[in-house]
Structures are given as structure tokens and as C-alpha cells.
Backbone:
């Protein structure tokens, strides 16, 4: 039985490395190919591995959420399709989103028309084949204008009910 163990949390679980000395720990780590371990464990237990559901960015909890499969689900929907596309891209940010993810999350079938439209191109960019990411202007658009519109609409609704 070893004296010590080191625990490393990974995206697929936890790796436990047993060791008796620092040299032993270094040797055990050197002999471990984490990518191979990850691939083997993920393939074997793919159907039963519990994935942690990604959380919305702070302050956006009432605007969108992630499903257990990792898709964005909009709770509040902006007043036009381009803003909806921007909000979906914001939710996925900093990871790029595929056309399929954007379309399914936004409910917009012709999402490519908005992603390539000259009026909106400054808000996002194509980072690889079929994947898009918000630009700095897009981030600002979502965090200032689009979110502000939700807050103004909410304030109007609250003032009508009082």
C-alpha cells in the first residue's frame, strides 16, 4: 500500500495517482498518458458518464440555460432574429457554435442568412468551417443593448402591474 495519493479532477472524472515519494509521483505522472486514459474511459462509459450541465454566465440565468446535452435553451427571446443569433452565440462564448447549434438553439432555420448578412457581419466571425464566434462588437451588443432591452421590457411590465 502506498503512503500518498494525488487526485486530479478531469473532464471525465478523477484520476488517482498513488506514490510513496516525490520521485515516485513524477515517474507515475510521466508514465501516464492522460489523453489515452480519457479516450478509453470516455468510450467505455460514454452512455453512463454524468456530465455537469454548463451554467449561464452570471446575470443571464433568467435569459438562457443549457440543456443536459449541452444545447442552449433561450428563456427570453429578443425582438428580432439577428439579436437572437447574437444571444445564442453569447451563451456559447468563448466556444464557437456550429450552424446546427445556433439553428436549434434559436429556432431560426435560415440562420446562415443572418450570419452572412452585411448588416450583421461585424457582430460575429466564422472561425472554422461551419463554426461562428461573437466579435468584440457582438459581445458589447449583447451585454449592453440586447440585455438592456430585456430590462426595459421587464420594468414596463412591472410598472403596469403596480
Residues:
Amino acid at each position: 500500500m502506498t503512503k500518498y495519493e494525488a487526485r486530479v479532477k478531469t473532464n471525465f472524472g478523477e484520476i488517482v495517482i498513488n506514490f510513496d515519494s516525490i520521485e515516485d509521483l513524477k515517474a507515475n505522472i510521466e508514465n501516464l498518458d492522460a489523453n489515452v486514459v480519457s479516450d478509453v474511459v470516455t468510450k467505455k462509459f460514454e452512455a453512463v458518464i454524468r456530465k455537469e450541465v454548463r451554467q449561464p454566465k452570471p446575470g443571464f440565468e433568467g435569459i438562457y440555460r443549457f440543456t443536459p446535452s449541452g444545447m442552449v435553451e433561450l428563456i427570453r427571446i429578443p425582438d428580432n432574429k439577428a439579436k437572437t443569433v447574437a444571444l445564442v452565440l453569447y451563451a456559447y462564448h468563448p466556444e464557437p457554435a456550429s450552424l446546427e447549434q445556433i439553428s436549434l438553439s434559436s429556432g431560426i432555420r435560415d440562420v446562415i442568412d443572418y450570419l452572412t448578412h452585411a448588416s450583421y457581419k461585424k457582430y460575429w466571425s466564422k472561425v472554422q468551417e461551419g463554426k461562428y464566434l461573437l466579435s468584440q462588437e457582438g459581445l458589447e451588443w449583447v451585454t449592453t443593448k440586447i440585455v438592456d432591452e430585456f430590462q426595459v421590457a421587464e420594468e414596463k411590465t412591472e410598472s403596469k402591474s403596480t
About this structure: Residues 147 and 153 are 10 Å apart (CA to CA). The first strand starts at residue 4 and ends at 10.
